[in-house]
Amino acid sequence: MKFELRGITKRFPGIVANDQVSLSISTGEVLALIGENGAGKSTLMNVLYGIYRPDEGELMVDGKPIHFSSPADAIAAGIGMVHQHFMLVPVMTVAENVVLGVEPTGRLGSLDIAEARRMVREVSDKYKLELDPDAVIEDLPVGVRQRVEIVKVLMRDAQIVVFDEPTAVLTPSEILEFFEIVRTLVGAGRGVIFITHKLKEALTIADRINVLRRGKVVGETAPSATNEDEIAEMMVGRAVQLVVDKHSAKPGDVMLAVRDLTVVEPDGRTVVDGVSFEVRRGEIVGVAGVQGNGQTELVEAIAGLRRAAGGSVTLAGRDITGDSPRERHVAGMAHIPEDRQKQGLVVDMSIVENLVLTRYHDPEFSSGVRMNWAGAKEKAAAMVAAYDIRTTDPSQAASTLSGGNQQKVIVARELSRDIKVAVAAQPTRGIDVGSIEYVHAQMVKERDNGVAMLVVSTELDEVMALSDRVLVMYRGKIVADLDPRTVSHMDVGLYMAGSRPTAVSS
Amino acid sequence: MSTVAGPGMVVSAEQRKRARNVGFAYLVLAMVCFFVFTRRPGDAGFKISETSQFTLPAQGFGWALGIVLVAIAAAQLLRGLGKLSNVVLALATAAFFMSFLAWAAAGDSFSFVGMLQDTVSRSVPITLGAIGGILSERSGVINISIEGMLLAAACTSAIAASLTNLWLGTLVGVLTGMALAAVLAVMSIRYKVDQVIVGFAINFFALGITSFISFRVLVPNRDTMNNLLPVMPIRIPVLADIPFFGGIFFDQTIFVYFSFLAVAVTTWGLYRTKWGLRTRAIGEYPKAAGTLGVDVNKLRYRNLLLAGGVAGIGGAWWPIGIVGRFDQNITNGRGFIALAAVIFGRWHPVGALCGALVFALSEAVRLKIGNFDTGIPSEFLIMAPYVVTIIVVAGFIGASRAPKAAGQPYEDQ
Amino acid sequence: MSETLKSLRFTLLAVVAALVVSAFIIVITDIEALGNGDFGTALSTLRTAYWGLFKGAFGSLRAISNTITGATPLLLAGLAVSSAFKAGLFNIGATGQMLAGAMTGLWVGFAFQLPPLIHVPLALIASAIGGALFGAIPGALKARTGAHEVITTIMLNGIASFTVLWLLKTEAFKREGRDDAISKFVEESARLPRLFGFMGKRIDLLAHSGFIVALLATAVFWWLLRKTTLGFEMQATGFNQEAAKYAGMRTKSLMVVSMAIAGSFAGLAGGSEVLGLYGYASATVAGDIGFDAIAVALLGRSTPIGTLVAAILFGALQAGGRQMQVDTDVPIDLIIVLRALIVMFIAAPLLVKAMFRIKGEAKSFGQTFRGWGG
After folding, report:
1. Strand duo B109-111 + B43-47: pairing
2. Where in chain B is the domain with CATH 1.10.3470?
């Protein structure tokens, strides 16, 4: 089977998400679709899966045009999709999730759950995807959930399987397992489309690579004919600076000290397990780790958003373990939260209001009871100018800004005051390269001004480039304290996966 | 790899806290036994048929139960009751209720069977309204408009039944419920209006239009358009002769049988059929179903119409099942009680039935016990289930799980 | 066209659409005339009804006084719903909060003998406090346990109604010589002065200075939203509770405070009815005002000015509705239908757009309800 997209254009109010995109995929091969966040990959996949209808262009199966008006049509045509955010109902079992939409039924439409279990086992045995049909999804680790998604797709007899950013939530060893699964699928005569922004993975697994930029296909190549730098340049349209421009750090006094910090979830799980480290004035300490190993909870505990079950947090010599987020803010802590739109901003409020969201109680902006909006507007205008926030009118809602500019609003708000410690979680997630460089530059500048900086990121490249010291977090514990100048990416990756590089083991 | 604890194990802080709260609740009940239920002397007669009754010594029973409750509380607080805790809770609640009745009727007697029979009958509109609520909320649409559906259906079915016959009257009630459900569906699915707001508008509309019709049309034409003979109870042979329970469950109107059937069928449907699997999926995570080719919005439309139809039968219960006519605002907030029953029952049909029975019981108790001069105003009796609902919602909703997608429109494009 | 003009146009169109649908209802329920095939009579009933509606609302000083009388509690209770909406809470409990405020205001009104200059403000403050305390309960329940305010406020309304029913029969509140649920009169010194009191003999002009209180409350609500840190915190929490928490705001306390503020507005509504309109309390003192207030807040899009305009419109409909009922055989319950339709059309701008074939983007009311939080 050969599946083609010809001249696909999809517009949304204000933007052209896909502009005359053409590509093709045959069974038995792996096509990698590479692009930055916002390059139009997801839109394209939604077109190909019948969720969006294209404004122009057509889809062809074996040379014949075909129309999808819903995912059901795409499934019928042999397309299967494994979404980035798993499409699984958390409270239901594996078998229930897998058969949803193709339920085996008995009399009166009753569900034949025994048959459903058998169907799951059949597929999982055939492709060696080990699964318990009666396990409830929410109890399963991410890697297993992905297997459920794959079984779901195979059950529907998909000839072409689309994976949308499948490795984002996997550990390095799970990624290797995932590649094995892809190879099995191709061996069984399926075609695979692999959407990613990770160049190395595309180079490892793909037969062909298509590069998408600003909604257009800007290049087609094969792993054998190219290298990482070349694809990266195609992706962003210019040579990318893979290193952050900075001098070596001059660490001073300890500003942030975390001692035996422990965080326990309401259901009894320990998510941060006796973590200790220090961050000194004038250094950037990075925390690397696969998503879901306690980094989020660690940051929230340091910022005062979660109560510590044990241990202490000290800011410039003062114990702040029991302090509220507000007290920590006043004591000189800045916090850039990991989810910009849900935690960092109130997107329905104006840019001005968002620029004072954490600072409105400062004497500069209020008398305690009354807001000083004139002062806020003045200061906001200054921040908009100083931090290059691209807007015509700061009284517009923050939702009108692009992701990068939204992030700059948060960075401006948090870093443009007298601070001692800054804690940044995923500071550049999902923003364009220009904004990434800008945010990194601001963080280095603050470091050089004597701020102690803690950066948590699941992007290993970011942590390695930005940090003066790298901590690795695995299952709630800090498992390594490394110097990014001397350690290799591969070794850090091994720590992230919970194993210990043989060369360093002691 | 599973992180879920085995049954009966007390692990998390949350569970420990709950167990402790329940323990203190037992102590409070025990105090009520000691200080209230032992205050009125005499035996209470519980009539369980025309001719027979059993008696409970009010004070003795109060003292005994109080002591037992203290023991249970101690066991609960010291080491937890594990697997038994739900059974114990149910038994203790029932015994507490009996003690309450004995206290209220001390030195007198009342028809215990009649009260329970009345309870079952009164639970019908609440149960059916709650089923309507469950069907829509399980598919992801909040249904605040149960009250409006009950009320409108009561009005139209009264008119239709007066003009034609009881069957057609009920059918018109069903269609009325479906019509309002269609408004809720179109507004919330097609126009993506806030579902709570539409629900409220529907309630306002139903209250206004039925009062309007009542005064403008029904009052002047009382004899022809609002006058009918309600259905009679149907004695089910053999079963109705079972002592005690026979009269309560098997000598009732067809509405009662239908409401039990509706609970059974809905439970089976939701958990044992393809339709149920899809319905639960679109209420929890509609995208998961949508990306597998399930037409989310179509199923929501269908389920809402079904919900409206079931609630319509609940509404028809007033004129056709019991009263014989329509009065202005005859439902008097039962739709909101049904909503409470949905949440009380954690979006499960059987749970909702239990909730409906609790509310209906408090009404029936007030009517039977209200005559006894207990020193407790009858207002407090009818208030009790409201307080209990708040306690339940406050204590358990954190642990119980509402359908995740309820309240959010689904964008398939 | 500016945003304000656009939303005003939609509001007007919604009212027009509701009037059209109601007209249809009036005509088709005129079964006697229609049964005789007499369309003319049915239409003339309609004309008389709508003319009565207008005349009863604005046609005379008395009509205007009635409109003000009706608008007063609607405005105060409407603010109770609007202010909670702004903080992201759906306050269905205005009825209960009104009853609480009515009872505390009533008690201060009859239990003390003070000069009017002290007695009136004291009774009003008591009403506000009563409403605030009762309103704080669902806020605290949500903050502490996550219990959804929609369900707890519905239950608390029931609890308040039955409590009031009982209180009114107790010795402390019961009127001498009456067995039904009706309270003592408040002292003359606690009565809110009548607005048209300067006209001496016109005792039919019922409007009282509760309306001034309501206008002041509206101004306070505006000031709170626009000028204070608390208002900023409430709105941030209302839009995005998680971001507010991350910004260091104490969102749980804010829930309680917001509901207490909302409750104080509703409490004043109850107090102004008792101290201004009736002079005593009965079980029906809150009537359907708490529910109508939801419609007022929705129509006014929860803004101070919008709530004010909506309350006056609804007050006018109520005053006019009474005249309509007198002039024709169209019952006043039509007004409930009208309100329901207005809310429906306001909430569904897309529908109004389709009905009137308007092009361009319609601003939706948005989703205020984000699930049960389970």
Report:
1. parallel
2. 121-396
The partner residue sitting opposite C243, judged by closest CB among A328, A342, A368, is: A342
Contact C90, C368 (CB under 8 A): yes
CB contact under 8 A, A371 and C227: yes
Å between B344 CA and nearest CA of chain A: 20
Residue A378 belongs to some domain of the structure? no
How many CB pairs lie under 8 A apart between chains A and B?
101
Q: Are residues A224 and A261 located together in one domain of the fold?
A: no
Query: pLDDT of B4-60, one tens digit each?
Result: 333 344 456 666 777 787 888 889 999 999 988 888 888 888 988 878 888 989 899
**Please, what's the b/e burial string for A106-131 (b: 16 or more CB within 10 A of its CB; e: otherwise)?**
eeeebbbbeebbebbeebbeebebeb
Task: Decide if C214 is inside a domain.
Answer: yes
Asked if residue A287 and residue A169 are part of one domain, the reply reads no
- In a shared domain, residues A320 and A462: yes
Q: CB distance from B383 to chain C under 8 Å?
A: yes
Q: C174: domain range?
A: 3-356
Pairing relationship of beta strands A15-26 and A216-221 according to DSSP bridges: unpaired
Same domain (yes/no): A149, A178: yes
Hey, what CATH topology would domain B121-396 get? ABC transporter involved in vitamin B12 uptake, BtuC (1.10.3470)
C367 within some domain? no
Q: Which residue of B has its CA nearest to C166?
A: B379
Q: Looking at the structure, tell me whether residues A147 and A89 fall in a common domain.
A: yes
Write out residues 46-65 of B within 8 Å (CB-CB) of C: none
In this prediction the pTM is 0.86
Amino acid at C16: V
Contact A426, A407 (CB under 8 A): no
C236: closest chain A residue by CA: A346
Residue C372 falls inside a structural domain = no
Determine whether the interchain pair C372/B405 forms a contact, defined as Cβ–Cβ distance below 8 Å: no
List chain C residues with CB under 8 Å of B386. Answer: 155-156, 158-159, 162
Neighbours of chain A (3+ CB pairs under 8 A): B, C
- Give dist(CA A457, CA C316) in Å, integer: 60
pLDDT digits (tens, 9 = 90+) for B178-234: 999 999 999 999 888 888 888 988 998 999 999 999 998 898 888 999 999 999 999
- Partners of B197 on chain C (C-beta within 8 Å) are 298, 343, 347, 365, 368-369
CATH number, domain containing residue C221: 1.10.3470
- The reply to whether residue A353 touches residue C236, judged by beta carbons under 8 angstroms, is yes
Which domain-ending residue is among A236, A271, A291? A236
- pLDDT band for C361, please (50, 70, 90 cuts): low
In chain A, which residues have their Cβ closer than 8 Å to the Cβ of C229? Answer: 360-361, 366, 368-371
Most A CBs within 10 A among C224, C226, C229, C237, hence the mutation to make, goes to: C229
For residues A268 and A224, membership in a common domain is answered with: no
Q: Tell me whether residue C364 is in a domain.
A: no
Chain-centroid distance, C-alpha C95: 9
Owning domain of residue A138:
2-236
Cβ–Cβ below 8 Å for B394 and C90: no
- Burial of residue C20 (CB within 10 Å: 0-12, 13-18, 19+) is exposed
CB C272 within 8 A of CB C73: yes
Give the pLDDT confidence of C138-187 residue by residue, as tens digits.
999 999 888 888 889 988 999 999 999 999 989 899 998 888 889 999 99
Q: Evaluate whether B136 touches B311 at the Cβ level (below 8 Å).
A: no
